[in-house]
């Protein structure tokens, strides 16, 4: 089926991406045959904050990398060993690549599959140190282990009507939800969400879905705080001076929350008048300060082992100055790592299809073309309160 042109969003280094011609995908990776894989015509593919870390030069990503790990597509070719996924199926692709056969996959820990990345546990499409798999911000992409990985939408026409929400099942909706689940959010919880980017907004919406009594979102960008308020969140502007616990107390009547979700990660900045200064451990330290004794802290925000753009040598190797003794004294539990998307995506699909949540509205989806992707990256990097979703074949718009 190698008769289609293919283009993709390619990292150029120096904060730049371009849309270039790339090879049409094959059912292989190097010398490895992927008879268990499928080729997708990409219906939607999203720009993620994790992509921005690479584009900003804050990882060891090589130039020439085809970006994109948030993929929804239509199956156009199946490998010899694919049994249950068929040509024409409309599917959501978890950003985690998982074999379904290793110990971790069998335990549901698909974010740390042992067989898909020679360098370390866990793999993803179009991402640094994650196995070399080609990204999906493209016209076409190959997906391995298709029977295990893919979530087939039960009705393709119904799915197309809700595609702006369903496209978020590949990453940010499950990731935000996972952050809340691992922070122990449940009916009546008080919750603090650090960061009002797309994952933070998805986490805030997930906290409401889980029954939280009060969801407080902290950020430094007014448009993003406005977006959080649009679906019932309380907000704190972290650029303003003052003790954050005083501000929590003004909302809750209590200086601590039951659950804390870090949706910022390693490019965090100090609060107040120092908000232009990077402080990579500030959110983690705030979490231990602001979470009640016995509470839980979910950390879906990205932390890396190598950060060449860090301001001190320790942080360049992922070593952060945390007040861990405080968390220990308060009997906190902290949950880190990639979200195992497959653990949640079917249930969250149902929540979308049965109108229990309008996640596209919560994160403010904006559809763009593949050619508009570089501008989407620039706008997102500037703090736009939007989730940019690429529609490469104009199948949505």
Automatic annotation (TrEMBL):
A single GO molecular function, which one? formaldehyde dehydrogenase (NAD+) activity
Where does the source fall among the domains of life?
A: Bacteria
**InterPro entries in alphabetical order:** ADH-like_C, ADH-like_N, ADH_Zn_CS, GroES-like_sf, HCHO_DH_non_GSH, NAD(P)-bd_dom_sf
By its UniProt entry, which CDD domains does this protein fall under? PFDH_like
Keyword hit for Amino-acid biosynthesis:
no
Keywords on this record? Metal-binding, NAD, Oxidoreductase, Zinc
Question: Which is a Pfam family this sequence falls into?
Answer: ADH_N
SUPFAM superfamilies named among the record's database cross-references: GroES-like, NAD(P)-binding Rossmann-fold domains
**Similarity section:** Belongs to the zinc-containing alcohol dehydrogenase family.
Under which name does UniProt file this protein? Glutathione-independent formaldehyde dehydrogenase
């Amino acid at each position: 089926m190698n008769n289609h042109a293919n283009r993709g969003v390619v990292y150029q280094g120096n904060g730049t991406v371009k849309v270039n011609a790339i090879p049409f995908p094959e059912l292989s990776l190097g010398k490895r045959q992927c008879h268990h894989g499928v080729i997708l015509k990409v219906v939607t593919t999203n720009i993620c904050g994790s992509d921005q870390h690479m584009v900003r030069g804050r990882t060891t990503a090589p130039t020439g990398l085809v970006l994109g790990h948030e993929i929804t597509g239509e199956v156009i070719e199946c490998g010899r060993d694919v049994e249950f996924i068929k040509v024409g199926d409309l599917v959501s692709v978890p950003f985690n690549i998982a074999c379904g056969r290793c110990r971790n996959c069998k335990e549901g820990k698909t974010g740390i599959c042992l067989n898909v990345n020679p360098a370390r546990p866990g793999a993803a499409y179009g991402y640094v140190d994650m196995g070399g798999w080609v990204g999906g911000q493209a016209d076409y992409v190959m997906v391995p282990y298709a029977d295990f990985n893919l979530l087939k939408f039960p009705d393709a026409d119904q799915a197309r009507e809700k595609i702006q929400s369903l496209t978020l099942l590949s990453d940010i909706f499950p990731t935000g939800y996972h952050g809340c689940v691992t922070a122990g959010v449940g009916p009546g919880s008080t919750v603090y969400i650090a960061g009002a980017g797309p994952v933070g907004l998805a986490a805030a919406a997930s906290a409401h879905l889980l029954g939280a009594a009060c969801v407080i979102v902290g950020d430094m960008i007014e448009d993003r705080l406005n977006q959080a308020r649009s679906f019932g969140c309380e907000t704190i502007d972290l650029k303003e001076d003052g003790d954050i616990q005083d501000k929590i107390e003004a909302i809750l009547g209590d200086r601590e929350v039951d659950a804390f979700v870090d949706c910022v990660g390693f490019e965090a900045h100090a609060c107040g008048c120092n908000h232009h200064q990077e402080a990579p451990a500030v959110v983690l330290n705030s979490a231990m300060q602001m979470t009640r004794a016995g509470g839980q802290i979910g950390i879906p925000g990205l932390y890396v082992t190598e950060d060449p753009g860090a301001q001190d040598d320790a942080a360049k190797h992922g070593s952060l100055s945390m007040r861990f003794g405080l968390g220990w004294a308060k009997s906190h539990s902290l949950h880190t790592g990639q979200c195992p998307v497959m653990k949640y995506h079917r249930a969250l699909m149902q929540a979308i299809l049965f109108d229990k949540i309008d996640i596209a509205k919560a994160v403010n989806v904006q559809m763009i073309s593949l050619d508009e992707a570089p501008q989407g990256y620039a706008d997102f990097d500037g703090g736009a309160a939007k989730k940019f979703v690429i529609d490469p074949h104009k199948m949505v718009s």
